[in-house]
Design goal:
The complex is a heterodimer of chains A (about 240) and B (about 250).
Chain A: H1 2-6, H2 13-28, H3 32-53, H4 62-102, H5 105-111, H6 116-154, H7 159-167, H8 173-198, H9 204-233
Chain B: E1 2-11, E2 14-24, E3 28-33, H1 40-48, E4 55-60, E5 63-64, H2 70-77, E6 80-83, H3 95-106, H4 111-124, H5 140-152, E7 158-162, H6 170-187, E8 190-195, H7 198-204, E9 207-212, E10 215-220, H8 222-225, H9 231-237, H10 241-249
Parallel strand pairs in B: 3-8, 3-9, 6-7, 7-8
Antiparallel strand pairs in B: 1-2, 1-4, 4-5, 9-10
Helix pairs in contact in B: 3-4, 3-5, 4-5, 5-6, 6-7
Chain lengths: ~240, ~250
């Protein structure tokens, strides 16, 4: 029912478009630093752990680069980074909308004749669906670069082995799988968080509870849909 | 003109609004008064559709609001301005953006025309030059005035005010009351004010409904209220010793 109102015709497209740009900045651009830091470090950690694990002389060292690429492209960037974004963006959305609800700002919108669900939630969903793929692409790039930097700096593998590894046996459809997951997760995070924020009632305590529920349920749904999409894409 | 006819509202097993009827006149400050928890705010929320009525009619110039479709309700709401108890200004927007918001949403005015209108409204509520302040930077009285400027920005035909004086000092309360009264008369608006502030009742009570335990218990104006023989209204009006002593002398 809420989503029906969210996707109903906007009162004024120009205002909604301005809101989407605002949300792209608020949801996307402001998340770049945390994503960059986490991705670089995780790429480095995966590379060192992989190099440490491959002790058999039968496993070529380019497998380090291969493992890093596969881990980052398939799971770390699309799923783990989205779980982190569920914490950062989801709690932000739920508390922002929740605070608007308890301070009657949403009632004010309704009384003005504005579809409050559409005005508040649609730009967030649209912004997340648009910007999350770019954030995850950045995460993938920085993760692989972090692996390269840490792998070569620590002597876990040579530059040639790593670069050869990240190019080996590359299957482009896996990127399609990853970005499909990202778009689904972007929708889940924003819609679930908005739902909990929008249905907040009471005071500051309830805003906190809504925020927590938003993060918990977004995270669970991300894992559930991750499993479903993996089953669909990797089905033989 | 707004007319409510036999409206009822129940929450669970609590019958909060009981068969209330009243006519709110244009160009007048229509007051709904009563003690806390008597159902005043619920009546107001039923009128603007924030709660659904269980039964009864809410007529905005003859249009029965509860039975209108979503689009028609939105059209009626575009003619409504509302001043909330806490102001309900949008935290992320400046005073100017808040006041301009209904204009952005519902008009095709140019940027310059919108700015003129915003400045006109801010000047009306004596907040000129505060365009770029955020709600967090305003005092309680300034927030109320900014919210009033937003409420009148789009030339409303109906103005609803939920306890406009709560949390304000007596001097600021009088300023807010006078502003509402002036705007009501100047623009011919049907204004409905919820209050339990006796100063407001005596200053601007053109048409008053006293609500007691969810019922319309008494109706009249500011001159009639002071001579009331209604026991419950008398208790409400003369709750303080000061009022009893002062008006006994009068």
């Amino acid at each position: 029912m809420l989503m029906f109102r969210v996707f109903s015709k906007p009162e004024k497209l120009s205002v909604y478009w301005r809101q989407i740009l605002h949300e792209i900045n608020s949801i996307g651009i402001s998340s770049m630093p945390i994503i960059a830091i986490i991705s670089i470090f995780m790429g480095g950690i995966i590379t060192i752990q992989a190099a440490f694990g491959f002790t058999s002389p039968l496993v070529p060292l380019y497998a380090v680069g291969f493992t890093t690429r596969e881990s980052i492209l398939l799971e770390f960037s699309p799923t783990i980074v989205c779980l982190i974004l569920a914490g950062k963006v989801g709690s932000n959305i739920a508390s922002e909308i929740g605070a608007m609800r308890i301070t009657e700002q949403i009632d004010a919108l309704e009384i003005m004749g504005i579809n409050s669900a559409g005005y508040l939630i649609f730009p967030k969903i649209a912004a997340a669906v648009l910007i999350f793929p770019f954030l995850i692409a950045l995460s993938m790039f920085l993760g692989i670069w972090g692996g390269y930097f840490m792998g070569t700096a620590s002597g876990a593998c040579t530059e040639y082995q790593y670069i050869f590894g990240i190019q080996a046996f590359f299957e482009p459809w896996k990127l399609y799988y990853s970005f499909t997951k990202v778009i689904v997760f972007a929708y889940l995070i924003t819609s679930v968080s908005s739902y909990y924020g929008y249905h907040t009632s009471g005071g500051a305590l309830e805003v906190g509870k809504s925020s927590t529920s938003a993060v918990v349920y977004s995270s669970i749904l991300i894992l559930l849909f991750g499993l479903i999409l993996t089953n669909i894409f990797f089905h033989r | 003109m707004i007319e409510i006819r036999n409206i009822n509202k129940t929450f669970g097993d609590r019958h909060v609004v009981k068969d209330v009827s009243f006519t709110f006149q244009p160009s007048m400050t229509n007051l709904i008064i009563g003690e806390s928890g008597c159902g005043k705010t619920t009546i107001l929320k039923l009128m603007v559709g924030l709660h659904e009525v269980d039964s009864g009619d809410v007529l905005f110039d003859g249009q029965n609001f509860p039975v209108l479709g979503v689009k028609e309700k939105q059209e009626v709401r575009k003619k409504i301005g509302m001043l909330f108890q806490g102001g309900a200004l949008f935290d992320s927007q400046t005073v100017e953006e808040n006041v301009r918001f209904p204009l952005d949403m519902f008009t095709d005015l140019s940027k310059a025309e919108k700015l003129d209108r915003v400045n006109f409204c801010l000047q009306k509520v004596k907040l000129e030059g505060r365009n770029h302040l955020y709600p967090a930077e305003l005092s309680g009285g300034m927030k109320k005035r900014a919210a009033l400027a937003r409420a009148i920005a789009n030339n409303p035909r109906y103005l609803f005010c939920d306890e406009p004086n709560s949390g304000l000092d007596p001097k600021t309360s009088i300023i807010i009351d006078d502003l509402i009264k002036d705007i009501t008369v100047e623009f011919g608006i049907t204004t409905i004010i919820i209050t339990h502030d006796m100063n407001s009742v005596i200053e601007i009570g053109d048409n008053i409904m006293f609500v007691y335990k969810g019922e319309n218990w008494w109706t009249g104006d500011k001159t009639e209220i002071l001579g009331t023989k209604n026991a419950e209204l008398f208790d409400f009006v003369f709750a303080s010793e000061f009022m009893k002593t002062f008006f006994k002398k009068q």
